[in-house]
Specification:
globular, Rossmann fold, 9 strands, alpha/beta, 286 residues, 3-stranded mixed sheet, 2 domains
C-alpha cells in the first residue's frame, strides 16, 4: 500500500493489522521557530491520516532543537498532553500546508483545524500551569481584553511588517466601539512593547515572564542562560501558554505568521481577528 512522501519529518515502525489498518510513529525533523515546528508537524500528521496511516505517537527528538535543554530529547510530553481520541476523524477532509500561516486567516478552515489541534496538541500539565500563573501575575482577563500581537526581530525578512503605529491605530478603532476592554500586548521587541504601553497607559498589560529584545535576532536564536535568563523548554512552555491565552481574547490585532495563525486556529474562527497581511495591509475580520 502507498506510503506518502512527507515534507517535514519521517514515519517509522509502520505496522499493518489483520484488518488492514495501518499505524506508525511520526518523527518531526524541523528546527525553525516554535510554532513553525508545530505547523509542519501538523501538516505531516494530517497527510499520514489522509493516506490511511494513523499516527499513534509523535516524537520530537530530532527536531525542535531550539526548544529543548538536552540534545536529542523528545519534548512532546513537555509541551503536549498526548494524542486524543478522534484524531483520524478530525483529519478527514482537512487541508493544511504549513505555508498557510501567511494567508488571510479568515480563508482557512479554522474550525476544522482547531479540532485537529485539540487532539494532536492538547497543552501539557506544565503549559496549563503556566497559563494559570501568567493570568494571575498579569491580571489579564482574556475575555475582556484586546490583544495586540506584534512580531519584530527578523520577521521583516518573511513578510512586510506594518509599523507599530498601525497596530495602535487599529486597536484604538476597536476600543472606540468597545471602551471597556483592557489591552494586552505580546511582542518580542522591547521598542514595540514600550510604544504600545505608552499609547494605552494603565489599561495595557503584558506577560512579564516572556523575554523581549531590542535587537534584530529572534529570541529563540539568543543564548539561553546568558541573553535569555531561562531554560529553553521553560521559554517554549510560556510561549505556548501566552498563545493560548491570547486566543481567548475578545479581539486580536495580529500579524501574518505562525503565532498569529495559531491564535486563529486555537480560536477556531477569524471572528474579531484583525490581521495585517503579508503585505502589511489590515484585513478586517469576516
Amino acid at each position: 500500500m502507498h506510503v506518502p512522501k512527507l515534507a517535514w519529518g519521517s514515519l517509522e515502525n509502520l505496522t499493518t493489522r489483520a484488518d488492514g489498518s495501518r499505524s506508525c510513529e511520526y518523527f518531526s525533523e524541523t528546527d525553525h521557530g516554535l510554532y513553525s515546528n508545530v505547523s509542519t508537524t501538523m501538516e505531516d500528521v494530517i497527510t499520514l491520516f489522509q493516506h490511511g496511516i494513523a499516527v499513534r505517537r509523535v516524537d520530537l527528538s530530532r527536531g525542535f532543537r531550539r526548544f529543548k535543554d538536552e540534545p536529542g530529547k523528545d519534548v512532546y510530553a513537555a509541551f503536549f498532553a498526548g494524542i486524543g481520541d478522534g484524531l483520524a476523524g478530525a483529519c478527514r477532509g482537512v487541508a493544511f500546508d504549513s505555508w498557510d500561516i501567511h494567508k488571510p486567516y479568515r480563508d482557512l478552515k479554522l474550525a476544522s483545524l482547531r479540532d485537529v489541534a485539540a487532539r494532536l496538541f492538547p497543552p501539557s500539565l506544565a503549559v496549563r500551569g503556566c497559563i494559570d500563573a501568567m493570568l494571575q501575575d498579569s491580571g489579564i482577563v482574556p475575555e475582556r481584553a484586546l490583544a495586540i500581537v506584534y512580531r519584530g526581530t527578523d520577521k521583516g525578512t518573511e513578510v512586510t511588517l506594518a509599523p507599530v503605529a498601525a497596530y495602535i491605530e487599529a486597536a484604538r478603532a476597536i476600543l472606540a466601539a468597545h471602551p471597556d476592554l483592557d489591552v494586552v500586548v505580546q511582542t518580542d521587541q522591547a521598542q514595540a512593547r514600550d510604544e504600545i504601553m505608552a499609547a494605552f497607559g494603565d489599561r495595557c498589560r503584558f506577560f512579564g515572564e516572556l523575554p523581549v529584545t531590542s535587537g534584530g535576532i529572534a529570541i529563540h536564536d539568543l543564548q539561553f542562560g546568558v541573553e535569555v535568563k531561562m531554560r529553553r523548554e521553560a521559554f517554549a512552555q510560556k510561549m505556548m501558554a501566552a498563545t493560548l491565552i491570547l486566543s481567548r481574547c475578545a479581539h486580536v490585532v495580529t500579524y501574518s505568521g505562525n503565532i498569529g495563525a495559531w491564535i486563529a486556529i486555537y480560536r477556531g474562527s477569524a471572528a474579531n481577528v484583525h490581521q495585517f497581511d503579508r503585505n502589511g495591509d489590515l484585513l478586517p475580520p469576516r
